[in-house]
């Protein structure tokens, strides 16, 4: 799949070849933790912040659709969930590791293994094998409904959207074939949204087994009417639905039952049947004939077990001459959207339930996880010293970081583990501000803390560092942000938790807006703010014509600033700079494409003016740039985003930094006027061209690296200091990036999140 979504007709497309091996690049070359189950950062953060999540299976991609059609379907399903306000958690096996949440490159790689001998259809019985054998054979696998439910439940995800449920096969007990899906629903506490059971099964006996297993079954429909259970391709079967759900809220209300039922010893799941959209329904008389032929053919050829379902579905597709395929895709997308709606309602109900529990005095309940409503912030007590206007405002997170290191290699669950504890002051906003301060700039942090012991300690520490704390406010009822990591005796992360909710309230956006005023040279904001808070910052800086820099913070937060109405170049309101790593850049590109940011007419005008021709591609980029930057789609993604972010510094970890920036009309694009190593297109109109420049990383041995924490934040802080001192002039960017890389290396050699030695290379 090309990383360039669309380019003007006269512009040569930049090819994107997926690399044979994807790897995570950081400032350190330390090996990835060898764990059998891995939860992605996006899913982990959604769980912590109580964002709606929908689990998705992968057997449909590895054993249902051929490559690359399966990739196209996977992208559409995840996009449908995001557009409906939830986070997709695609579940599968890659390289022998069970993954909850895939990046797009990882999902493409799994889908590309469809049909290979080492790609397995993974149910409950197969999980120990594929995970346990990973040191010998790195199996890939698409999880079935059973496998997906099990892993979703382990991760704490309560809603799962799929196509159709397995069940009792026709002719039972000859063959004696009953899907493990039915047993899993009877013992695993996950709500499954499907278009009923697959139509070629024995539907009556399937739902009899579900009743025996104690599974709640309901169908979305109108109360008081005769509602039938759906039959995959048909909106109705001949089986009456035992229960009716009028809305996603009804389903969410039932999904909250498991939390209470745990205390009663009940563990069964729920099946919410969602009929196929009416316009895609296949008449029963047409599809039933095809089903009978396909089932008989499978029986004649001796196809049984887990191979039977994909075989029959493929035969139905062949018999109907492909007519069943659009119906299959439509019902999967329909279920994904319904799953997102149920997940949203579930989060609302859980938050309301937590609020009601806080008012009770019974000892049978834990205190609510969500803090009470946060009133407007009040200023902290400041000294009478007059504080001058800062050169730099950094709007973002301030947190207390706690690291607990166990004395054992493998921490024990369900009990207390002896640990050593380290407590430091962290947060992206704080780290960036401190680095800018040490690099010689007058920088002010704009953030919030709770009126609690942690907040008081954080303010004391900030003051001891000599930082300007006039932009930090205390919030009554708020809880100071915390990040808690539990590491094993080798220092490897075992589990971590983050509570950053204090930055997502409306008061953070209001505080930021009030702190932005004329005289500030540069404003930087990190992705911890809510979408609404970030929009306030974009608007406030645009009104005062102050350059704005965006630090994405993480893949899940990198998209919060994106919007179809985001200001675009050459407007002075456009964001001046963003500093993503490669994963954040890919996520931003994908999300921008999905929400239509590459369809705007003014976006097309900028892309046309850039004029990326064959000379730029074949003679300059291809021959003078690291091949991986093109093969992995990094340059292509940055070019697409450049009309919204006129300068993009992509952090490549051990490979350095690549700068992609638009040149304004007044800039000369001749080689004599540009620094060595710059690759420039000859633009027209409002854009003089686009420049691409690679800055290799500073040489540093693995033995010299003490900690990678804070290296990226240090880099950005030093960049901000350079921009404040030298201005946004393109001529100085090379010097700014070079010094910032030196600053990052100093932090790599330091146990602190920002090395004190950054002052040695700053602007004084």
Automatic annotation (TrEMBL):
CC per GO annotation: cytoplasm
Transmembrane stretches, start-end: none
Pfam families reported in the protein's UniProt record: Indigoidine_A, PfkB
Tagged with keyword RNA-binding: no
Domain (Carbohydrate kinase PfkB): residue spans on this chain: 391-592, 679-752
A molecular function GO annotation: metal ion binding
Keyword Cell cycle: no
Record keywords: Glycosidase, Hydrolase, Kinase, Lyase, Manganese, Metal-binding, Transferase
InterPro entries: Carboh/pur_kinase_PfkB_CS, Indigdn_synthA-like, PfkB_dom, PsuG, Ribokinase-like
HAMAP family: PsiMP_glycosidase
Protein name: Indigoidine synthase A like protein-domain-containing protein
Lineage: Eukaryota, Fungi, Dikarya, Ascomycota, Pezizomycotina
